[in-house]
């Protein structure tokens, strides 16, 4: 008896139990990434695997008199064919929220080569030849975080929105802009008050929740007011970006608490109902460098007795984060300069930088003269995958409904590997014409491939019906699927 048949018989025996009491998911035409167990019922010799981004090197150095070693809290926005970078400029360490902090702007045509334009907006050190867009409005410039407003009802001259501030001014001030460069206050008073805010507090328009969502700093034991316990995350929503709901603390399932210095939650652009959070994990007093090594690197004396890395988690709305992976998403790089306090913090947002690639940006060499922005790359949807070994395995999905005419997948196999798909009815029985025997074997490495059964790709007859997928995989990765 073949291994495939054995797995199939085992799965058939388990189907009635896994279907019992299960309310079908509504996939519609959403792209589903395997970043959690949302779509997964059973895995046989298959795992959900997190992938490591590829180090593409430094793309921008913070070497101007007004940005410097303590540049941080970065945001990258792709607006049509322009990539925009926003970051705090701070040449010398000091108390948070002073006029020494400015908000700087850089630009790119491809997300790879960046430059700092001379904007002529603010006089800094006697000259307007600089890339500063906000100045002399502390503490807004400590942690100003903008976003491109995707609300279909957004006012045109408020295409960009942003928040900045902390409890010293009573909360977060809101700013708006038409071009992303010239900003004005939305109102004189703060728009949100109930938080600690000593971090990058990020907001966006949620297409799936139909409201603005704000994720902000709180503490695990001190809640919305005290610095006590672990650095954590709160959440609030708004219909108008001015009036916000009663905040709630985010939860993390049964995963252990850690210091999440930044969380960088944002909708993934190819699946906006999935919020991706690629933030900075802070490990206080976890010292790697000696004092002598810190002096050799010219690290600020107050910033080498801790270390940090980048983590990956997700949310599908509400006050729940999924931390399927506790391991680092991006480890600190080779060299002691990567093992200092508050280095390796990712910028807000991942953006597409080629037809097959997305980019993630990370600040490195913090508190050093060599401080810079680093780029990492992944394939589209490539944060995680369903991954099967050479010996093969199977996946059984939960019951769901969909809309569309065809099934598209993002996948890769080895030369010896393959994938096959079966569609089952709500009782777990293979649907004639869509059985595993009917499935055409898929081999290759493609961002977009349509699944076929004996050459037939049309699944429209099954739309709106309760079904489930059975997937056979051998030495293969499945990154996402979508019904079109």
Task: Provide a short characterization of the protein structure.
A hairpin with a 2-residue loop joins strand 6 and strand 7 (82-89). It is built from 3 helices and 32 strands.
Question: What do these coordinates show?
Answer:
Mean pLDDT is 94; it is low at 1-18. Strand 15 and strand 16 (211-219) form a beta hairpin. The longest helix is centred in the N-terminal third of the chain and has 17 residues, at 3-19. 6% of the residues lie in helices and 41% in strands. It has 484 residues and is mainly β. The protein is globular, with a radius of gyration of 24 Å. Strands 2, 3, 4, 27, 28, 30, 31 and 32 form an eight-stranded antiparallel sheet that branches. The chain contains three helices and 32 strands.
Label this structure with key terms.
single chain; five-stranded antiparallel sheet; disordered N terminus; 6% helix; mainly beta; 484 residues; eight-stranded antiparallel sheet; 3 helices
Secondary structure layout plus pairing:
Blueprint: H1 3-19, E1 25-28, E2 31-33, E3 40-44, E4 47-50, E5 54-61, E6 72-79, E7 82-89, E8 102-108, E9 114-115, E10 132-134, H2 140-143, E11 145-148, E12 160-166, E13 171-177, E14 183-185, E15 202-206, E16 211-219, E17 231-238, E18 248-249, E19 259-260, E20 265-268, E21 271-283, H3 291-297, E22 307-315, E23 345-346, E24 351-354, E25 357-364, E26 372-379, E27 384-388, E28 393-397, E29 400-402, E30 407-424, E31 445-450, E32 468-483
Parallel strand pairs: 1-29
Antiparallel strand pairs: 2-32, 3-28, 4-27, 5-26, 6-7, 7-8, 8-9, 8-10, 11-12, 12-13, 13-14, 15-16, 16-17, 17-18, 19-21, 20-21, 21-22, 23-25, 24-25, 25-26, 27-32, 28-32, 30-31, 30-32
């Amino acid at each position: 008896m073949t291994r495939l048949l054995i797995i199939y018989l085992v799965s058939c025996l388990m189907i009635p139990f896994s279907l019992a009491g299960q309310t079908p998911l509504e996939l519609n035409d959403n792209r589903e990434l395997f970043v959690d167990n949302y779509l997964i019922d059973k895995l046989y010799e298959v795992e959900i695997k997190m992938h490591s981004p590829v180090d593409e090197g430094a793309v921008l150095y913070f070497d101007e008199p007004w940005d410097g070693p303590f540049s941080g809290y970065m945001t990258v926005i792709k607006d049509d064919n322009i990539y925009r970078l926003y970051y705090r400029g701070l040449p010398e360490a000091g108390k948070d929220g002073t006029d020494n902090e400015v908000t700087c702007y850089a630009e790119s045509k491809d997300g790879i080569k960046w430059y700092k334009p001379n904007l002529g907006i603010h006089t800094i050190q006697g000259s307007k030849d600089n890339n500063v867009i906000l100045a002399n409005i502390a503490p807004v410039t400590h942690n100003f975080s903008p976003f491109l407003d995707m609300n279909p009802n957004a006012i045109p001259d408020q295409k960009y929105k942003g928040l900045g501030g902390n409890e010293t001014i009573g909360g977060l001030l809101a700013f708006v802009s038409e071009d992303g460069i010239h900003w004005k206050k939305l109102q004189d008073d703060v728009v949100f008050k109930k938080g600690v805010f000593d971090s990058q507090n990020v907001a966006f328009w949620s297409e799936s929740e139909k409201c603005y969502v704000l994720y902000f700093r709180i503490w695990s034991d001190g809640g919305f007011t005290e610095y006590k316990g672990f650095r954590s995350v709160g959440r609030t929503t708004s219909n108008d970006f001015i009036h916000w709901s009663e905040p709630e603390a985010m939860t993390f399932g049964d995963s252990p608490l850690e210091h999440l210095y930044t969380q960088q939650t944002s909708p993934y652009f190819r699946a906006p109902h999935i919020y991706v959070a690629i933030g900075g994990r802070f490990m206080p007093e976890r010292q790697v460098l000696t004092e002598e090594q810190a002096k050799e690197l010219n690290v600020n004396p107050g910033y080498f007795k801790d270390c940090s890395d980048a983590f990956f988690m997700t949310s599908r709305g509400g006050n729940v984060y999924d931390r399927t992976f506790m391991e680092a998403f991006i480890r600190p790089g080779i060299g002691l300069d990567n093992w200092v306090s508050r280095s390796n913090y990712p910028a807000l947002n991942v953006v597409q930088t080629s037809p097959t690639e997305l980019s993630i940006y990370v600040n490195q060499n913090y508190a050093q003269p060599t401080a810079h922005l680093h780029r990492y790359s992944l394939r589209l949807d490539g944060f995680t995958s369903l991954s099967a070994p050479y010996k093969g395995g199977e996946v059984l999905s939960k019951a769901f409904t969909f809309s569309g005419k065809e099934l598209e997948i993002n996948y890769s196999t080895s030369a010896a590997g393959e994938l096959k798909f079966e569609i089952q009815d709500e009782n777990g029985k293979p649907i004639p014409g869509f059985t595993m025997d009917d499935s055409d074997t898929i081999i290759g490495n493609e961002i977009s491939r349509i699944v076929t059964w004996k050459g037939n790709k049309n699944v429209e007859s099954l739309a709106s019906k309760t079904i489930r997928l059975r997937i056979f995989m051998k030495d293969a990765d499945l990154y996402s699927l979508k019904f079109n």
